[in-house]
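Subject line: Sequence and fold of a protein, written as structure tokens
Area: Proteins and the way their chains fold up in space.
Start of record: The labelled sequence and token lines come straight after this line.
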Amino acid sequence: MDANEDAKQGRINPEVWEAREMRDALANRNISEVYRRLRMHGVSQRQIAAMTGQSQSEVSEILKGRQVMAYDVLSRIAKGLGIPRGYMGLAYDEATRNQVVGDGDEQQAEEDESVKRRKFLAHAAQVTMGAAVFGPASAAWASSPGRTPAPGRIGMTDVRQVEAATRALRALDYQYGGGFCRDAVVAQLSWGQQMLQASGPERVKSRLYVALADLHSLAGWTSFDIDLVDSARNHFAQALELAKQGDNHPLVANILYRMGRVYLHQDAPNDALKLFQLGQLAAQESGSELAVAVLCANEAWAYAMMGNVEQSVKLLGRTKDKFQRADVANAESWVKFFDETDVYAMIGTVHTALAQHADAAHTRYAIPALRRATDAYGDDMARSKTFSLSMLATNHMLEGDIDHGAKIGGKALDCAEGLKSARVKKRMEPLRQEALRRSNNSDARELAERMTEFFA
């Protein structure tokens, strides 16, 4: 049966996709060339339109050279035509999207955030549950004509250099915020991505997948920290694919935890919980008690934001149990951050959320945990210390200890001054609101005024 006859039956002969020219067009996401080659096989514009869900005029425009880069459109084309998803890279950076969409088509570029969350969740589920990953073609987001040449053949030393750069950049993020180092992370990725095209032993390539997945995860995290949510989502999507290719379940769990945190920040605990639960599957499969503890703590936070006391407390208990069993000293770098101090910070965070969304009495559990966390955090963890100080001050305000709360709030602001992080304002807003509610107190009023001025 020829391609035309197959198309009449609502399918394309799979052999069509195997020709070298077609594979090149798919790898480059050159949909115009893909459609032209289908036409050469006798598939009509009408048939292409029917199978992809596009209008005939849209197919015609693409045949004339209109580029297609939108994730949802590429996905629909791949599904409709029966193209193996591994032949096409489907994740792309917002800069690429803006270049293609342009200022004249803002409606296509601006999707509803809830739709984007659902798409990422579907993508995460596909990758986590074992769907085929997209491979190096998905890395075309970082294209700069001035890139430093990467080696044609790589060894373990090259991979270790990527890992060392990621560790150094992550330390800068913890201390100064994503705004301080995101450009450096993206630049490192621009170089590192080229190594995927290099030759090398399989064990080296496998470790490279994991190293670049971790670097993409850091790019996602630093993007999130300066409120570039679309960029964060795209980096996390690529990180997931690479981590899956590297068969690294703890890293998959960590990436899903971080994307879930983006949704908590957006006050979408239901969506965040779904990602944490997916991450929990990967964490349990990995056998890493520490990864399981991280996911349990964040699931507890999501439930707390929903006002579910029982589930929050239960999951905090499981967090402590898993942490005590974990081999923290030998943990991988991307999960090693979760030490005893972070456990106390999460206990304080969850009880703070419960105090705000369920029962103010939870301040009595939040305060001692947050006090231990703030005492233990050093200057190298300035952002985490700022968040903990802010929550500690909020809890003292809720308890009526206004003067002490205002004093700690002042320390939180002092700590925040050296950070380049858009998250700081959102995380400190509850404290500002509590201070405003108590503006008859001079210390609270002074704190509220200082915070308003700081975040203006």
